[in-house]
Design brief:
It is built from 15 helices and ten strands. The chain is of the alpha/beta class. It has three domains: 157 residues, Glutamyl-tRNA reductase, N-terminal domain (Beta Polymerase, domain 2, 2-Layer Sandwich); 139 residues, NAD(P)-binding Rossmann-like Domain (Rossmann fold, 3-Layer(aba) Sandwich), CATH 3.40.50.720; 73 residues, no CATH class. The strands form two sheets. The protein has a six-stranded parallel sheet. The model has no long low-confidence stretch (mean pLDDT 91).
Length: 416
């Protein structure tokens, strides 16, 4: 039985291919069941995110041929269109790959924490579909433990490596509690969305989103219980903002020194924390000269991000060592499962012998034989029957110079 991991990710496949191989959440259960019903598939799970689609499964094959045929059929795509982008891992490589993915070591942003939650979603979908199987289910649980150990024992996720997260972390350092602050976010692109998400997760009091296209601002604000305004309304609301984060594609500044100065007066010189993440800049450089404004640019944050990225890389080296150990632990468990079937068969054989000898002993007792005689005969017969086959095999091993088997028997039976 082979454990396989097969997939595509942001490194191996363009977004056009990743889109075609993606599995929406509402398709996972039905897709897993059809995969489970395919020949030679024993245990299956699918991890599908914007950056990767991966299949984890157990099979009698050493190659992913059955899976490739299934993907081509269910996605209505020729194998030639996606197989050049596939990577695959087997057994210990599969275990290591899953541990690295869950720990954020294989992510576009090193150490990002979201992937662990996505991995848990993949596990839950497979569990609900009834397609996990014993070994894959155990592997997922060990994967979660390994990822938790990496998070606990290293600094892989402790330092922000996106400008949005760095901006929010800086805001947390400046304000005692974000729950009492109002944030004005200018723009509605990916960076502003990420900033809004981080602020929302950190219990920001209120979010105002301003954008050139009001509908985009409204759609984004609705996700975070925010309030949408047009760019032209910024002067009216600027004085309400304790935090201002701007990231637009405008070629001209959105906020000038005069407008910010007016807002400061309305606030009775209560400070404003401002972050300009745009290039070209959205906030005039002269704004930094105002006494009650703390203005940071993308360059200011980038220095912090670079330092944090170095910190994560060092932590990643520690994480790889942890994963090496965890892989060996799981491989030991896998090897022990091979012995389990032998132990089970040996025990069944011994129990059959016991029952046979016991039945004869009971019959002798019923026929009036003395208990002492019957017990002596039972002990003698049972001993002979239990050691007959091992003794015969050892004599044959000795005759054939199989000293390895003789030594193994001495170790197994703990003979001095």
């Amino acid at each position: 039985m082979t454990l396989l991991a097969v997939g595509v990710n942001y490194n191996t496949a363009p977004v056009a291919i990743r889109e075609r191989l993606a599995f929406p959440a509402d398709m996972l259960e039905s897709s897993l069941k059809t995969l489970w019903n395919s020949h030679k598939i024993n245990g299956a799970a699918i991890l599908s995110t914007c950056n990767r689609t991966e299949f984890y499964y157990q099979t009698d094959e050493n190659e992913p041929n059955t899976l490739i045929e299934w993907i081509a059929d269910i996605k209505k795509i020729s194998p030639n269109e996606f197989t050049p982008y596939l990577y695959s891992h087997t057994d210990s490589q599969t275990i290591r790959h899953m541990f690295r993915v869950a720990s954020g070591l294989d992510s576009m942003v090193l150490g990002e924490p979201q992937i662990l939650g996505q991995m848990k979603t993949a596990y839950q979908a497979a569990y609900d579909a009834g397609t996990l199987g014993k070994h894959l289910g155990k592997l997922f649980h060990h994967t979660f433990s390994a990822a938790k150990k990496v998070r606990t024992d290293t600094a892989i996720g402790s330092s922000p490596v996106s400008v949005a997260f760095a901006a929010v972390q800086l805001a947390q350092q400046i304000f005692d509690s974000l729950s009492e602050q109002t944030a004005l976010l200018i723009g509605a692109g990916e960076t502003i969305e990420l900033t809004a998400r981080h602020l929302y997760q950190n219990n920001i009091g209120r979010i105002i989103i301003a954008n050139r296209t009001f509908d985009k601002a409204h759609a984004l604000a609705a996700q975070f219980n925010g309030y949408a305004i047009a760019l032209s309304e910024i002067p009216t609301h600027l004085a309400e903002a304790d935090i201002v984060v701007s990231s637009t594609s405008s070629q001209l500044p959105i906020l000038g020194k005069g407008r910010v100065e007016s807002a400061i007066k309305k606030r009775k010189h209560k400070p404003i924390f401002m972050v300009d993440l745009a290039v070209p800049r959205d906030i005039e450089a002269e704004v930094a000269q105002l006494k009650d404004v703390y203005l940071y640019t993308v360059d200011d944050l980038q220095h912090t991000i670079d330092q944090n990225m170095d910190s994560r890389r060092k932590a990643a080296e520690q994480a790889e060592e942890i994963i090496d150990t965890q892989v060996e632990h799981f491989m030991s468990w896998m090897r022990s499962q091979g012995a389990q079937s032998v132990i089970k068969d040996y025990r069944q054989q011994a129990e059959l012998t016991r029952d046979e000898v016991l039945a004869k002993a009971l019959s002798q007792l019923n026929n009036g034989n003395s208990a002492e005689e019957v017990l002596n005969r039972l002990a003698h017969t049972l001993t002979n029957k239990l050691i007959h086959t091992p003794s015969s095999q050892l004599r044959e091993a000795g005759a054939n110079d199989r000293h390895d088997l003789v030594s193994a028997a001495r170790e197994i039976f703990k003979l001095k």
